[in-house]
């Protein structure tokens, strides 16, 4: 019944519930026996009676043991909480005793955590934030494809899709445009034609009124408009009575039927109003013109792959009806959200990766500091262990310290991330969608908290393990600190090597962007941008109802601009270079036929005489347009060198006849000149371009540009003054004409390189941070090692080592670490930089020059970091060192 | 010995607390003291006494200590904690309130109107 008596000695290691309860009951029985014997009972009978009174002793003992077990659990938990709290206070107090170390560590972590959090909030806003309407994950964009390449959608195809598709609950078409809002002061607004289905697919309750009705998608009913919340506030001062009232746009009357809520957008943010897209019967039977953007919403339960198969089936059906228009054509379904952020995904994830490297570097650095301290405190740790601290206690002790550091770092990081975010938003290219939602929302806070916790564990783990190991070592050594213990330093060396490697990767990344930026800067755009200004005007109102009026009005304005002071020359182009936007046309060549799908195409420009002189393009052959290339003269065209090479690789283009873009039978026009290539987009290689003089352009081409043209003016005066005077001169012609997209070419170049500049600046800042951190880490390890080895250095000097020998010894130790770091970093950078290749411009991600430069930079920084501790070591005084 | 009385739920704990106000005591002594103080009208079963003691120890109302007795035996002795003292005060008060109220009702000779 009773346990062996040795069990009670288990209490030495803590309470023993089992024997406690048994002992207590046995004691009770003894006392009862005494009582009964005193009352005159026989001892044997008394014992039996005592046990009988207890009843089932096993059950009673078990009940008591269970209760005791619960009590012990509660006590242990309480003890742990109290112990942890004490440890936390001790850790904070100890860190206060080393203010320099603590502030360096906290600051390092704050920078790392803050930067990471800021980038995360941008990443979240752009890529992860759910769209604000139900079923957003089922939204898709559908394009036509031409031999696998994406093209816009023809109105005929779209009309067929509406009736033939089965995978979608709604399909809608979208076409960005602009309107002259002529209500009050004229203003050009960004707008879009949109079918009613688009509003049903992304339903968010309208702020006021309603969206379009299905019947408003037809000609005759389409003069209604939904205002964006922004335009409603700015332009109509948020007056709800605007709903139901008519407003004047492009000189015509539209009725306001609703106001969208503030976050509403269909494709990309920025549309200021929407008008129904009404397709005419003629549109619906046109399968050869492709200009629509189509969005749809998959039915619930229909996968992306099923939707894709559905579209392929529909395309085959249409091809049977219209074989000529569907050669090599099919359709493709893209996920809407992925598609929206695709352009920025790469650059943001790369950036996030880079900032993650910096955070890792910061952690390694702080770990290094803590390890150094753990080494110094080996004795203390050993004493704790000797006094009965468990391994858990010791690990907890070290973890508390890193938790205090990480928590302080996180608090500071909150402010760092706010500042960083503000700087980021100022620098970021404007076209990134959703960027305005980047901020300190709950997801960001959760991210910061989780990351800080992970950092705390990361920081505490190595010193804690080291602390555990040192317990045995110190006890064996008797607490004497001798020369360098190699195992001890090896871990810190590994950390420094990793730091150098990470720094090299970041510096190399920054280097690649810098090289990219220089390449972009050196791009020959094909014209002379300085002193050039562009400003766009659209002759959209009823006053300019015929092409003849339009073709007369633009040259008149150009003449007026020419007479302005400081204007060297003035001209106009429907789509000037670097200003965004192009129109593509098929080009036919007299006497030639091309295989279907192999027809040459070109980007189409309407220009005024004097355009090429104004931008200072290079004339390769033939002549430029003159004022006499007017409506009565023979039709002419100019082409760029790329188109000339495409059409006539081995002969002169001058005098050849081509045609383009007219509805119906096309009249031939003679090629009179070839100009050098000009970049329509800074980062894209030149493509074929075709120029037509304004008075000879086919009437239908005006609708392609919404009757608009951009003036291109060269000035030798102040650009801001000139822009103001251009606006004034245009207003003199017609006060209702809004002037928009007025920009200097310096600004356009800046916009074109904005995303590259964004990456370059950020990477450079991160690389700079990484360099400093790696240098501090290297310095820390060497300085500590020199301090630890002062005895050894003293012996060396006493034995005749010259200062230069000691200097060399320490420097060699440091530079070996740098060299190992460079080798590792090279491998890391080569592997990691591959993801950047699409972000770079004409620089290979393995560009040897960049890596060489980054390596040299790190060697120089490493040498500086080595020099200070090395010099200190070389000045070691043998007498002090040996006596210490 | 007088008639046996069943103790209402939780009353034993109040009595244990009261007993321990006289000083530290082992389980056997506590049981004996309550029986004697009740004029032997209460019988304290070991089967309820010891679980009650352990439960109260878990709640922190009493604390236990192993001591050597004069007969050189090892016994587990219980003592009141500050929390136990507070418990006794509230439990005694509510017990007395119940007793008084129930008694008043039972003693009433007035018919309900």
Task: Fill in the keyword field for this structure.
heterodimer; A: 884 residues; alpha+beta; eleven-stranded mixed beta sheet; six-stranded mixed barrel; 22 strands; 53% helix; globular; B: 113 residues; Arc Repressor Mutant, subunit A; three-stranded antiparallel beta sheet; 4 helices; 3 strands; 54% helix
Total number of β-strand segments of chain B?
A: 3
Biggest β-sheet strands, sense, barrel of chain A? 11 strands, mixed
CATH structural fold name of chain B: Arc Repressor Mutant, subunit A
N- and C-termini, Cα separation of chain A: 65 Å
- How much helical structure, as a percent, in the residues of chain B? 40-55%
Question: Looking at the structure, what is the overall shape of chain A?
Answer: globular
The radius of gyration computed from the alpha-carbon positions of chain B, rounded to a whole number of angstroms, is 17 Å
SS strand fraction of chain B:
5-15%
CATH architecture of chain B: Orthogonal Bundle
Overall outline of chain B? elongated
At the fourth level of CATH, the homologous superfamily of chain B is: Winged helix-like DNA-binding domain superfamily/Winged helix DNA-binding domain
Estimate the mean pLDDT confidence of chain A.
85
| Whole-number mean pLDDT of chain B | 87
Q: Supply the number of helical segments of chain A.
A: 25
State the helix count of chain B: 4
């Amino acid at each position: 019944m009773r346990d062996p008596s040795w069990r009670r000695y288990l209490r030495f290691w803590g309470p023993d519930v089992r024997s406690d309860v048994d002992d207590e009951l046995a004691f009770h029985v003894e006392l009862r026996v005494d009582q009964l014997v005193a009352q005159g009972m026989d001892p044997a009978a008394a014992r039996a009676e005592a046990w009988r009174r207890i009843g089932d002793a096993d059950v009673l003992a078990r009940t008591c043991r269970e209760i005791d077990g619960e009590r012990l659990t509660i006590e242990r938990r309480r003890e742990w909480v109290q112990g942890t709290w004490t440890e936390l206070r001790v850790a904070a107090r100890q860190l206060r005793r080393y203010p320099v170390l603590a502030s360096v560590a906290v600051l390092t972590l704050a920078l790392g955590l803050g930067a990471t959090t800021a980038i995360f909030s941008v990443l979240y806003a752009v890529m992860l934030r759910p769209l604000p309407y139900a079923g957003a994950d089922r939204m898709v964009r559908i394009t036509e494809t031409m031999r696998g390449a994406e093209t816009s959608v023809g109105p005929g195809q779209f009309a067929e899709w509406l009736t033939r598709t089965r995978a979608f609950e709604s399909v809608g078409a979208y076409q960005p445009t602009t309107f002259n809002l002529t209500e009050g002061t004229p203003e050009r607004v960004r707008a879009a034609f949109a079918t009613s289905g688009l509003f049903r697919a992304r339903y968010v309750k309208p702020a006021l009124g309603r969206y379009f009705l299905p019947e408003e998608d037809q000609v005759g009913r389409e003069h209604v408009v939904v205002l964006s919340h922004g335009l409603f506030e700015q332009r109509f001062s948020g007056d709800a009575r605007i709903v139901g009232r008519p407003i004047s746009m492009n000189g015509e009357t539209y009725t306001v039927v609703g106001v969208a809520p503030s976050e509403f957008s269909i494709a990309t943010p920025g549309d200021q109003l929407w008008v129904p897209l009404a397709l005419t019967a003629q549109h619906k039977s046109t399968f050869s013109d492709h200009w629509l953007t189509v969005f749809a919403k998959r039915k619930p339960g229909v996968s992306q792959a099923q939707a894709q198969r559905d579209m392929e089936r529909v395309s085959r059906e249409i091809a049977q009806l219209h074989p000529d228009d569907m050669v090599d054509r099919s359709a493709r379904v893209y996920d809407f959200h992925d598609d929206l952020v695709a352009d920025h995904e790469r650059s943001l994830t790369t950036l996030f990766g880079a900032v993650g490297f910096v955070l890792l570097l910061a952690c390694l650095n702080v770990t290094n500091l803590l390890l150094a301290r753990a080494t110094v405190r080996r004795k203390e740790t050993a004493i704790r262990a000797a006094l009965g601290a468990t391994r858990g206690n010791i690990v907890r002790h070290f973890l508390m310290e890193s938790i205090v550091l990480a928590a302080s770092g996180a608090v500071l990081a909150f402010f760092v991330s706010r500042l960083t975010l503000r700087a980021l938003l100022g620098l970021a290219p404007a076209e990134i969608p959703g960027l305005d939602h980047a901020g300190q929302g709950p997801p960001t806070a959760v991210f910061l908290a989780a990351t800080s916790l992970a950092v705390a564990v990361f920081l505490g783990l190595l010193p804690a393990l080291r602390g555990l190991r040192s317990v045995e070592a110190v006890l064996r050594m008797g607490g004497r600190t001798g020369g360098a213990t190699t195992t001890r330093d090896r871990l810190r060396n590994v950390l420094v090597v990793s730091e150098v490697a990470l720094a090299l990767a970041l510096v190399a990344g920054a280097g690649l962007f810098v090289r990219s930026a220089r390449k972009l800067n050196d791009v020959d755009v094909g014209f002379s941008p300085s002193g050039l200004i562009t400003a766009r005007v659209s002759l959209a109102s009823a006053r300019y109802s015929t092409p003849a009026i339009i073709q007369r009005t633009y040259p008149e304005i150009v003449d007026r601009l020419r007479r302005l002071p400081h204007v060297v020359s003035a001209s106009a182009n429907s789509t000037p270079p670097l200003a965004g936007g192009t129109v593509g046309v098929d080009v036919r060549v007299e006497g030639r036929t091309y295989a279907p799908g192999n027809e040459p195409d070109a980007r189409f420009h309407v220009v005024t005489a004097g355009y090429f002189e104004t931008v200072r393009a290079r004339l390769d052959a033939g002549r430029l347009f003159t004022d006499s290339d007017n409506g009565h003269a023979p039709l002419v065209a100019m082409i760029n060198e790329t188109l000339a090479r495409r059409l006539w690789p081995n002969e002169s283009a001058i005098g050849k006849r081509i045609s383009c873009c007219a509805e119906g039978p096309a009249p031939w026009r003679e090629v009179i000149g070839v100009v050098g290539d000009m970049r329509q987009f800074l980062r894209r290689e030149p493509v074929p371009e075709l120029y037509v003089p304004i008075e000879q352009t086919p009437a239908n081409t005006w609708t392609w540009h919404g009757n608009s043209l951009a003036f291109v003016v060269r000035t030798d005066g102040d650009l801001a003054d000139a822009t103001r005077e251009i606006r004034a001169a245009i207003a003199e012609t017609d006060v209702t004409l809004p002037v928009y997209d007025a920009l200097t070419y310096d600004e356009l170049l800046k916009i074109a390189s904005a995303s590259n500049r964004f990456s370059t600046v950020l990477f450079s800042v991160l690389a700079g941070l990484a360099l400093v951190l790696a240098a501090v880490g290297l310095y820390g390890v060497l300085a500590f090692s020199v301090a630890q080895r002062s005895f050894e250095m003293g012996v060396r000097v006493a034995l005749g080592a010259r200062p230069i020998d000691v200097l060399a010894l320490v420097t060699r130790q440091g530079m070996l670490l740098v060299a190992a770091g460079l080798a590792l970093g090279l491998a890391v950078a080569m592997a990691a930089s591959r993801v950047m290749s699409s972000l770079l411009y004409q620089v290979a991600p393995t560009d040897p020059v960049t890596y060489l430069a980054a390596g040299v930079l790190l060697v120089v920084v490493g040498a500086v970091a080595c020099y200070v501790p090395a010099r200190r070591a070389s000045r070691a005084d043998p007498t002090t060192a040996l006596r210490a | 010995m007088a008639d046996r009385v069943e103790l209402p739920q939780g009353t034993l704990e109040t009595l244990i607390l009261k007993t321990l106000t006289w000083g530290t005591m082992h389980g056997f002594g506590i049981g004996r003291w309550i029986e004697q103080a009740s004029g032997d009208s209460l019988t304290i079963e070991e089967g309820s006494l010891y679980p009650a003691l352990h439960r109260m120890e878990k709640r922190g109302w009493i604390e236990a200590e192993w001591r050597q007795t004069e007969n050189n035996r090892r016994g587990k002795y219980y003592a009141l904690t500050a929390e136990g003292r507070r418990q006794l005060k509230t439990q005694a008060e509510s017990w007395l309130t119940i007793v008084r109220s129930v008694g008043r009702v039972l003693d009433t000779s007035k018919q309900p109107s």
